[in-house]
User: What shape does this take?
Amino acid sequence: MRFENKPVAWAVTGCFALFLLALLVVPHFVQPEEYSFFENRYLAEKPAVEKDGILSGTWFSACETYLVDHAAWRTTLVEWNTRLDLALRKPVVNTVVVQKDQLLPYLDYEPEPDLSAIEEQALAVTENLTAHRDLVESYGGHFCYVAVPSQYVCLADRYPWYLENRCASAAASARALFRHLDAAGIDRIDIYPIYLSYTEEQKARYISKVDHHYTMFGAYETYLQMMDQINGDWKGAVPVLTEDAFTMEAVENTFVGSRDRMLFHLFQSGESLYCIRPEEEIPFTRYDEGVENTATVYSLPYDPQTYVTYSVYMGGDCPWTTIDTGREDLPSVLIYGDSFTNAVESIAWYSFGRMDSVDLRHYQDRSLNELLEELRPDYVFCIRDYSKLLETADNGQ
Assistant: This one.
């Protein structure tokens, strides 16, 4: 069928062409954003014009990525598209599996776990951990590996039948790693069986509905198990922050979890972050990478209307933080891993004279063993979530 009204056709075509042109031109006349809060990632930088890049074609590819990231009204358009997808009740929106009261990560389909590859990775991780353990024990310290279940492991049964939940590969990874750790004589704590023993109400408190981390309740359980390891198997004597010695305080600001952020906070679960406040005030000094910082373990905004994320705990992912309470009669501890250590650290400092925490994704000054040799902490805990059990990158080598 022919469209006889040619002036209207030309006008529609022209408007559409101008719209596309504006998407490409406007970013060159405004200050480009560096970070996308809702996507939780840094946006592409404008590529430098270089002869080699032009000849190889990489410059054109980088330009395309830059223009896509900085197209005019991009964030607004993506948000509108997200609203539409949610209104249409799509099961997966922006790589998030949308359930009635929870947001889960979309996981690529895996037909069968590669058991030989899992064994090889588990052995490599164990060799790495053994090197840390041997160094710590050489000066009289204690080392322990702590495995915590991440959100998709705890809520694997909440996935629709037609989507991958990674139950098989997570279980195979844990079995292989724990078998090698036990053979190497490395002390370990597995929080997952403890989670499975909970009532449904306790399980709901342990893991976030909209974030991949555990809640403060989950972090507190992890802390208690670590203290049991010290005061029990290792026959230590550190004070434990028991439930009658603190208040669990809800953060007033609206919490936006890592999954919720990807949906532009359109899910709005009503979930809150919590902080543990010891009744006994213990003064301390905080250092970040050796520089004295504000003496706090919670990073809270002054404005109650400002969104908060999991970075409330310890101020987010700091490469190396030290909390010194000045209590020389108490031992020292070093906790390392990734963001799953943050909430635990905001409690654990209470039990030690000095606590060092290291995020190995960001700490690049030296190897973990070099840092351990310098600090010689009495206790060392490696905390890894189930999705990272077999990762060798950023794991202390």
User: Anything to note?
Assistant: The chain has a mean pLDDT of 87. The CA atoms of residues 149 and 192 lie 6 Å apart. Residues 115-138 form the longest helix (24 residues). The two ends are 67 Å apart (CA to CA).
